[in-house]
């Protein structure tokens, strides 16, 4: 396969374009998709780039179909992905619950928009609960929340490896701001940087005649007995727990001596990092903590931070969806928890700084 | 196999059936076993066991998830069509079969059937029509006949309020282009049903487009019928609405029938 990017290069792109490039260099062979704002340009760029590199695309009749056709592609042994947002993400949870049950390495890029319902096509962080815990199951999926275009690129590549290595559905959780804004990043071929791409394997349509040369490969998501299902869920949850510490990622700074730690994820983290920098310059003992994986949460480090901090401020463009995940991880810690919740609205560094100053007085 | 008594000869089964999962899990008198026998024979005759992937839906069709010695995916209610579409797009060399009931195909998965047919997806859909939702205990389906009693039409289906039976193959024929294969068979005529299924598979193998076979099937459990009543319903009542025959067949498929 011809490499789309031979040599590293600087680029100035929108986030959706970045995702298309990342999927391309990660070796994604097929995208199945359905239009919904603000993720449309992932398809637009993919459909322009894909034929040049012999990759496939199918525009489906809805997100149910986009999810289930992606499952078909993955089960055929191809690196396949889809992208969605908002109400599309709601529909996408049906196929994703099947992927969760059947341990299918489906990759989904979500560019969050306002909610509930149709809401706005612009931006939010309101798809955290849906993406981490959606479906009638136990949330056995991996969710990377990106905060910059470089991360969109890096984590979209990584999502394919995580999915195919551990066989849990994997999400890249962006948002409308990241999707639509343009910023500089470095594009590269992962293998040129020593990032080996995990290989694929067909679940069905394998070599040899089933029943004669090999047993048939038969995959189901339905069980007759409670005990059968119990064993299945316990096994999968056990696998998930085992990999969680090596999958979980976070970043933090200045938390050791902090009177206040500001917790955030995704694009809001950029405002928080700027605010923390400015507050430190003014002599305030403030730090930040940012989970990169929202599922699994970096439970150990989050709890440790919450045990040390006097106060925690949780900033998010939702009404406490990150806060719920964090409180579960940090259960029992004594820190006072304060919030800056702006569902469906952007959060600026100035707002964060102002709120932090209030809390530090 | 030690459970099989030596004096009882094993019934003749298609080569592509998985013997260790027989007897199958369908109720006595169920039509699914007959449809799947025709499908198994067609697969045998075409010698494609090594390149077929079978997908089954939710509803009674899910009980076929280990029915064949064939790679199989059991999906969600109505979603077998898109899974097989996605697979076929990714692996065009495979022969993909989506197997479902009338609820899966004509109600909850209707948008997938319509769009896969309309796009001319090169897959084969086999749909068993037993005029109601069987797995959930016999509720009205889009295919329930006028006056037919089900759990949600206890006084009989009233077309004024709940519509007339859904004409699946006629709808598929109307929205597909030349090259599609569309037929309605019946478990009352297995030789014919097998030939329709075989032609539907040949149509896919030849890359001519969407192939669809509805099979009129029986459900004595939910119909609460004895053997004679069951066959009467399949042979006399159902064809009042559902005409058996080829509804759309390309010249090539028709030629196959003449030759065959």
The neighbouring-strand order within the major sheet of chain B is 2-1-3-4-8-7-9
Average pLDDT of chain B works out at 94
Distance between the termini of chain A: 60 Å
Superfamily at the CATH H level of the largest domain in chain A?
Thiamin diphosphate (ThDP)-binding fold, Pyr/PP domains
Rg of chain B, Cα atoms, Å: 18 Å
Decide which structural class fits the backbone of chain B: alpha/beta
Give the radius of gyration of chain A: 21 Å
Structure, described:
The complex is a heterodimer of chains A (361) and B (260). Chain A has 361 residues and is an alpha/beta fold. Chain A is built from twelve helices and 15 strands. Chain A is 41% helix and 20% strand. In chain A, strand 11 (260-263), helix 9 and strand 12 (286-291) form a beta-alpha-beta unit. The longest helix of chain A has 22 residues, at 226-247. Chain A starts with 8 loop residues before the first strand and ends with a helix. By secondary structure, chain B is α/β, with parallel strands linked by helices. Chain B has a single domain, classed as Rossmann fold. Helices cover 37% and strands 16% of the residues of chain B. Chain B is built from ten helices and nine strands. Chain B has helices at 32-46, 80-90, 102-108, 110-119, 159-162, 168-175, 190-205, 220-223, 227-237, 251-259; strands at residues 52-56, 71-74, 95-101, 124-129, 132-133, 139-140, 181-186, 211-216, 245-248. A seven-stranded mixed beta sheet of chain B has the order 2-1-3-4-8-7-9, with helices on both faces. The termini of chain B are far apart. Chains A and B meet through helix 3, helix 4 and strand 9 of A and strand 2, helix 2 and helix 4 of B.
Task: Please sum up the structure shown.
Chain A contains twelve helices and 15 strands. By secondary structure, chain A is an alpha/beta fold. In chain A, the strands form three sheets. Chain A has a seven-stranded mixed β-sheet, sandwiched between helices. In chain A, strands 10-12-11-14-15 form a five-stranded mixed β-sheet, with helices on both faces. A two-stranded antiparallel sheet of chain A has the order 1-8.
